[in-house]
Amino acid sequence: MSTTDEYDLECIGVSKNFSSVRAVDDVSFTIPKGSFFSILGPSGCGKTTLMRMIAGFETPDSGDIRIKGNSVLNTPPNKRNVKMVFQHLALFPMMNVYENIAYGLKCIGTDKATIESKVRDVLERISLPDVAMREIHQLSGGQKQRIAIARCMVLNPDVLLLDEPLGALDLKLREAMKIELKLLQHQFNTTFIYITHDQSEALVMSDHVAIMNEGRFEQIGRPEELYHQPATAFVAGFVGDSNRWSGVVASADAQTLEVTTQAGLTLRCVQQAGRALSAGQAAEVFVRPEFIRAERAGADLAEQGDQNGLDGTVDSVLFNGANSRVLVRGPSGELIEADVVVTGGQGDLRGGDKVRLSWPIAQSMCFAG
Description:
By secondary structure, the protein is α+β, with helices and mostly antiparallel strands. It is 24% helix and 35% strand.
């Protein structure tokens, strides 16, 4: 299979400096045809600069950007078959829905009958067939999102870039639009590249996610890979919730290691292929709250030899239905989060309860500190 057939977008060693700041640092990746690919990272990590280079609004200092196998470094933005949806959508308020969607087609000289057919088709595909004559101010936030996407998709782009398009929506609508965007991407079968600092958006919608930090990609993988097999401490701490301890490796063999934390706890971890640690090395240990079991002290825990355990006191209970959590004050005063089931009954944990926390050593992710 040729590169043109296989990838909609390739970035090869792309870098960009602004004065002394290296905003994007030797980034390389490929995006297969028809994928939903997200770039996830904190504010200022370089993701918007990277997207602007793909769109043609910035020029890389080095490297190459290829769309459908062809370099676009010398192609101006309006000549690249790439469209962009911004956070604030930039719909034309003086035009109705039909005119907004038709605008790009008119600019390239498409005949009236073809425009009418294409606009009608794209409105059907975004499940808004009856809004063509509505004014923009008459639309809901979610409808405006879909119209902004339709305005791009009617031009049949090779790649659609989405720059935090859900950031201006309220929480409930944002949750609904995550699902809608994924369905729309399947409907059009076009490569979507989505940038965000919101991990839940990236994990829910994406086929693959790139974690970006200080201008570089730390890891690219499927959402479940990033969550369960993070390659670096940054990824482990940025993707999902984690309890985190810093310390020093007290002992290590080929299979396991013991870390003495700064608070004096001893935690056991499984050695990971490719990043085995040795005694004396600084270490960071991460444990997801869902893997920690919290039981009242004195309960028959039947704790196994492959478990870590420590005692603590419930500081507070964070009720959130099926996603409820307890904050437990550990023996050295640190707060540890553990997921729990809250039924509303007498058996629920409450503030002040003495508890035993335990979790499998296999769920203790350890990285060099």
